[in-house]
Amino acid sequence: MMEKNPNEWEQHYLDQNIPWDKGRPAPALVAFLKDHPAPTGRILVPGCGMGHDVRALSAAGGEASEVIGFDLSPTAMKLADDFPKVGREHFLAGDYFKLPEELHHSFDWIWEHTCFCAIDQDQRASYVQASAKALKPGGKLLGVFYLNPYDDEHAPGEGPPHGCSLDELEKLFGDLFEITEHWQPSDAYPGREGKELMVILQKR
Ligand SMILES: C[S@@+](CC[C@H](N)C(=O)[O-])C[C@H]1O[C@@H](n2cnc3c(N)ncnc32)[C@H](O)[C@@H]1O
Predict the structure, then answer these.
(1) In ligand 1, which atom is closest to the CA atom of 113?
(2) Ligand 1 geometric centre to CA of 47 (Å)
(3) Distance between CA 92 and CA 74 in Å, rounded?
(4) pTM, full prediction
(5) Residues lining ligand 1, judged by CB closer than 6 Å?
(6) To bridge 69 with a disulfide, which of 16, 54, 157, 170 should be the other Cys (CB 3.0-4.6 Å)?
């Protein structure tokens, strides 16, 4: 698969051709919410697609959280908004690399799941900059990163999803974030077991 331009993401949702959407929140997030206090305050979910993770975070945080799902695809945001509300979640269409100024330095948490692996590898530095711009000082990015998305049908360099290692994350994020924790998630979608890493990055 080649790298995608912005319109291609939108077309996927228009065609309902969204193989990455499993119809439920990321198992790693569900496991985290079971074992830890829910993140609260303002939470941003870039590349949130249909918003399953947004609703999981919103339900877990209750009144103490406001969760904003943000995605390039206006159709995804419309479809996500059509789900019954579970808390104070809402959805905005936009490009993470051009985060609206009113969202700058306004989030306590970012939840990352399959946005970082979907963007071009040469956009990763911009992802780090956008995340630093979104968070308040000391804010945290909690993410499940796809270490190894490769199989018989999909090799490195062939387009998304792109893998990354902890070492690469340290190099990429290190100037602006400190990795405070990382661990293998206790649950994953079938086929992703052992291929993901949960990481907490705190903005310096
Ligand atoms: C592989 S999908 C994952 C969606 C969702 N996280 C899920 O697991 O179902 C990647 C998502 O990132 C979005 N995306 C890609 N580039 C983006 C950007 N620059 N800003 C915001 N969203 C982006 C796409 O529209 C798509 O919904």
Answers:
(1) 6
(2) 3
(3) 8
(4) 0.97
(5) 9, 20-21, 46-49, 71-73, 76, 95-97, 113-115, 118-119
(6) 54
Query: Which residues are within 8 A (CB) of 96 and not within 5 positions of it... i.e. 6 or more apart?
Result: 46, 47, 70, 72, 115, 127, 130
From first to last of its 204 residues, what are the pLDDT tens digits of the chain? 456 777 899 999 999 999 999 999 999 999 999 999 999 999 999 999 999 999 999 999 999 999 999 999 999 999 999 999 999 999 999 999 999 999 999 999 999 999 999 999 999 999 999 999 999 999 999 999 999 888 888 888 888 999 999 999 999 999 999 999 999 999 999 999 999 999 999 999
Give the residue carrying structure tokens 């999909």: 154
Q: Give the pair of three-digit tokens for residue 41.
A: 């305050």
C-alpha 69 – ligand 1 centre gap (Å)? 10
